[in-house]
Design goal:
The protein is α/β, with parallel strands linked by helices. The protein is 50% helix and 15% strand. It has a seven-stranded parallel beta sheet with strand order 3-2-1-4-5-6-7, sandwiched between helices. The protein starts with 5 loop residues before the first strand and ends in a 6-residue tail after the last strand.
């Protein structure tokens, strides 16, 4: 489905980002893996090759909170493969804290990693995509950006910001056949969710058990939706936010 296409994924070292990279490689794409941990990125590259022997996976070290690093990663992708078809802004962090106790540096860190990095990526990939008059950008938001959650005001604000960014970028870039959408996962079992306090995890388990599907999600559940949004099957889909939460918020 993606033969001859090139995908760049930020935060590709683990969890949802890794699952997206492996899924795109399986579907025939060459992938550019962006993150700060070379060892983990190389593990992702290995999984891509195992999923599809001969898959090309380029590891690019860079801090997505640094605009120049994001621009350099995009330049590397275009120089290496000659094009860039898909960009997935997946890198993110979650730092919980009650709003009365949030430190300014925590707010700044979440804004930098979760939201500003996506601005940098959209701006950088728009140039080659406009030149080739095609492309798909997917921003990984969160159900928390839609419904909020106590103790996660800063995280929720950044994830809600991604939804607004996606809708506006879709309007700006649509005339050049570039689509921009967001995905809002619910509770997905990753290393990030494992770090939640036990009380928070227990509360979430109760909600999940009462949800329509009655189970937590996996990174592969999200990866399949991202692949759909980048595929020709979604050629008329842009400016949308797809919720992937097993009915948790319904």
């Amino acid at each position: 489905m993606f033969n001859g296409k090139v995908a760049l994924i930020t935060g590709a070292s683990r969890g949802i980002g890794r699952a997206i990279a492996v899924e795109f490689a399986r579907l025939g794409a060459d992938v550019v893996l962006v993150g700060r941990d070379r060892g983990s990125l190389e593990e992702t590259a290995g999984e891509c090759a195992a999923e599809r022997p001969g898959a090309s996976a380029e590891v690019v070290l860079g801090d997505v909170a640094d605009q120049r690093a994001v621009e350099a990663a995009v330049s590397t992708a275009v120089e290496r493969f000659g094009r860039l078809d898909f960009a997935i802004a997946n890198a993110g962090q979650s730092i919980d804290g009650l709003i009365l106790r949030l430190k300014p540096e925590v707010i700044d860190q979440l804004l930098d990693v979760n939201l500003k990095s996506a601005f940098y990526l959209c701006s950088a990939v728009a140039k080659p995509m406009m030149k080739q008059r095609s492309g798909s950008i997917v921003l990984i938001s969160s159900i928390i950006g839609l419904i909020g959650n106590a103790g996660q005001s800063a995280y929720a604000a950044t994830k809600a910001g991604l939804i607004g960014l996606g809708k506006s970028a879709a309007k700006e870039l649509g005339s050049r056949n570039i689509r921009v959408n967001a995905v809002a996962p619910g509770f997905i079992e990753t290393a990030m969710t494992e770090k939640l306090p036990e009380a928070a995890k227990e509360a979430l388990r109760g909600q999940i058990e009462r949800s329509a599907l009655g189970r937590a999600g996996t990174p592969r559940d999200v990866a399949g939706v991202v692949a759909f949004l980048c595929s020709d099957a979604a050629a008329y889909v842009t400016g949308q936010t797809i919720v992937v939460d097993g009915g948790l918020s319904s």
